[in-house]
Design a protein that fits this description.
By secondary structure, this protein is α+β, with helices and mostly antiparallel strands. Helices cover 30% and strands 32% of the residues. A seven-stranded mixed beta sheet has the order 1-2-3-4-5-7-6, sandwiched between helices. The longest helix has 15 residues, at 99-113. The protein is globular and about 40 Å long.
């Protein structure tokens, strides 16, 4: 067993492992949500999606990989041509080892140097203080708050491009 975690863009050949990771993450956490029904997504469809994401300047999927298996994921979904929503998740057994922070760093670097996005946004439960602390350290600020199911959700944002053009 290798003890080194690598961080890289997802590749179409990762499709089945990504679906397995997303399914595990969804079962482990009530703060991680996937937009679609994972049971309806085939590895072939996911492979096509990853291929399209890798050709995009407004979308990203990157993985933390240990022994050829993804243990964490970060995505950026372009909301529009100017902003993208970032999401990150790490399997519970690997939390607390800066993997999530490294994935966030990778996504912010991508947004600044490669993407066409001006702003990254994210949503996080206010009581998830560990995550809020990490996001603040990375430069995210609270843009707004909303209530959902008796919980406060913080909408945080980070400018990634200079306004000067």
């Amino acid at each position: 067993m290798s003890d080194e975690v690598s961080f890289r863009l997802a590749e179409p050949s990762d499709a089945q492992n990504v679906l397995t990771l997303l399914s595990r993450l969804q079962k482990e956490s009530n703060t991680f949500m996937v937009d679609s029904d994972l049971g309806e997504i085939t590895a072939e469809l996911e492979s096509q999606q990853i291929r399209l994401i890798n050709q995009s300047y407004t979308n990203l999927m990157a993985l933390a990989v240990l022994d050829n298996m993804p243990i964490g994921i970060v995505t950026v979904d372009g909301i529009d041509e100017q902003s993208g929503e970032i999401g990150v998740a790490v399997l519970r057994e690997y939390q607390g080892f800066t993997i999530g922070t490294n994935l966030m760093d990778l996504a912010v670097d991508w947004a600044r140097s490669y993407s066409r996005l001006n702003t990254l946004t994210l949503a996080v439960f206010e009581n998830n203080q560990v995550a809020v602390h990490i996001y603040r350290k990375l430069g995210f600020n609270v843009a707004s708050r909303k209530e959902s199911k008796n919980q406060t959700i913080l909408i945080m944002s980070l400018p990634v491009k200079d306004d000067k053009k």
